[in-house]
Design brief:
Layout: H1 18-27, H2 29-46, H3 53-56, E1 61-66, H4 73-76, H5 111-120, E2 124-129, H6 131-139, H7 141-168, H8 173-178, E3 181-186, E4 192-198, E5 203-206, H9 207-255
Parallel strand pairs: 1-2, 2-3
Antiparallel strand pairs: 3-4, 4-5
Length: about 260
């Protein structure tokens, strides 16, 4: 049975040591390069302007559920949230709206959860699309292409981060990527509201994590810009002082 322990928590499960991690990180450069090549291929595909999900992700078995899913991020991120049901074509987008957790969040290693994770398989993708979003995409093919490009970019961003982590721990990145399946829960604007990825690690993420990272980067950039402005102002003040000093020196020399 495949171990679906979360790759973000490998230390928790005692996988690898610090020395091993350093060696694996060095040995993983080739894997990262391969992932980059795959990423460039995905980017080229994205630029073709796919207007539907199956065309946008031809390497996956794509299932689209049109309907109004209403699931809190807290429920979605629980290890026992039955996301695997979305890989059933007969499951509606709203089928799990009334799901309620029982007790504390269980371990991902629990045997029944492992069976459910394994039931998903590799190379599959389930996408929950609100009715209002589907109507707008049906009415405007250009808008539909924008939504496809947005989801492709989100996935590339996620895979880039996840595959670099896998390479650092010595995994074969190509095999790691090939083993993944995805559930995307989109909001009415086509942004990823919730996402679950299964593979060599069962990982649950939400768009808020990426939004927080983006906010932190923008904040850091603002700090750098502010510092650059302050340094530029200091240089101008210093130059003005130097000019004043040179002028005073010239006048004093002339008076001598």
């Amino acid at each position: 049975m495949t171990d679906f322990s979360v790759t973000d928590r490998l230390w928790q499960y005692g996988i690898g040591s610090r020395g091993e991690t350093k060696r694996n990180a060095v040995g993983g450069f080739k894997e990262i390069a391969a992932a980059k090549a795959a990423e460039r291929g995905a980017y080229a595909m994205r630029m073709t302007g796919a207007a539907d999900f199956k065309t946008a992700f031809p390497q996956y078995d794509v299932i689209t559920h049109v309907g109004n899913a209403n699931i809190s991020t807290g429920n979605w991120q629980r290890n026992d949230f039955p996301f695997w049901k979305y890989f059933d074509r007969d499951t509606g987008a709203d089928a799990l709206n009334d799901w309620k957790p029982q007790g504390p969040n269980p371990s991902q290693l629990r045997s029944d959860l492992q069976r459910n994770y394994n039931s998903v398989g590799a190379g599959r993708m389930a996408i929950l699309v609100p009715e209002s979003l589907q109507q707008k995409m049906d009415a405007d093919p250009d808008y539909a292409r924008q939504i496809m490009a947005k989801l492709q970019a989100w996935k590339e961003n996620y895979d880039r981060r996840d595959n670099m982590l896998a390479a650092a721990y010595g995994y074969n990145v190509a095999e790691h990527q090939a083993g993944k399946s995805y559930v995307f829960d989109l909001d009415e604007n086509g942004d990823v509201r919730n996402c679950t990825v299964t593979g060599c690690g069962r990982i649950t993420v939400s768009s808020s994590e990426f939004a927080e990272e983006s906010r932190a980067r923008k904040e850091k950039r603002r700090e750098y810009e502010k510092l650059a402005e302050e340094n530029a102002l200091k240089r101008k003040m210093l130059e003005r002082k130097m000019m004043e000093w040179e002028g005073e020196k010239f006048i004093w020399g002339f008076m001598q």
